[in-house]
Amino acid sequence: MQLSSFVLVPFVPWMQDQGLDLAVVSYWWSVVSFLLAVILTFFLLRQDMRAPAMRNATNPGMTVVWIIIGFFAAYFGQIIAGLIETYVLNIKQASENTSSIMDAVREVPAFALIVVVFAPVLEEIIFRKILFGEIYKRTNFFVAVLISALVFGAVHGDFLHLLQYFVMGVIFAALYVKTKRIIVPIITHGLMNLLVVILQLYFTPERLEEIERLQKQLENMQTIIFGG
């Protein structure tokens, strides 16, 4: 899936002659390639999917509870990691990776399926179930989570914000170990990505300017009412 974009390279001159928007074509191609990757992954794991749940796996009710706990843990974990990056490491919070993804979502709304569904499924199966799970069997939680979380962060290519991806990797791995159900980090991951998409779409530059204008109006009203 990651290398599938090379399939389009020979067709670039033809697409340019046809007047096609290469960015839009690449976004739709990503949606298709991610979907095919998910289907292929489920096919390869069909025996695992038919197997009974792991021993001591959480029941459906507690699974939902842990998804909710995991969502808030991931949310506050990302905030804390962001604060550390800002005030300790002096790293600006504007992420090129997030920005490029949101550009794709605005151009092709179907791209949101990658962010909210396809990517969480693939990443949790690959980085938690397979990579973390196999290392965890042979070593311990610390070694397994260190390797899998660092690889998880590095694969996103956003090295300035590696700490945030690392924190997410730790939380998702902890959820997997605690519940013995890969669906928990998958849904938690998807909800986190959904929150980011909603916030990014809502807080457009125009809306931020409007909010700032309203704040100034409120400040002016307070000055008038309370005499400063």
Structure, described:
With 228 residues, the chain is mainly alpha-helical. The chain has two domains: 1-51; 58-226, no CATH class. It has ten helices and no strands. It has helices at residues 12-17, 22-44, 46-50, 60-87, 96-107, 112-138, 141-155, 162-179, 183-202, 205-226. Helix 4 packs antiparallel against helix 8, helix 6 (112-138) packs antiparallel against helix 9 (183-202) and helix 7 (141-155) crosses helix 8 (162-179). The longest helix is centred in the first third of the chain and has 28 residues, at 60-87. The model has no long low-confidence stretch (mean pLDDT 86).
Highlighted features:
mainly alpha, 10 helices, 0% strand
Mean pLDDT: 86
**N→C terminal distance:** 60 Å
How many discrete structural domains?
A: 2
Q: What percentage of amino acids are in beta strands? A: under 5%
Low-confidence stretches: none
Overall helicity: over 70%
Structure classification: mainly alpha
- Oligomeric nature of the chains: single chain
Count of DSSP-assigned helices: 10
Summarize the structure.
It is built from 10 helices and no strands.
SSE blueprint:
Blueprint: H1 12-17, H2 22-44, H3 46-50, H4 60-87, H5 96-107, H6 112-138, H7 141-155, H8 162-179, H9 183-202, H10 205-226
Helix pairs in contact: 2-6, 4-8, 4-9, 6-7, 6-8, 6-9, 7-8, 8-9
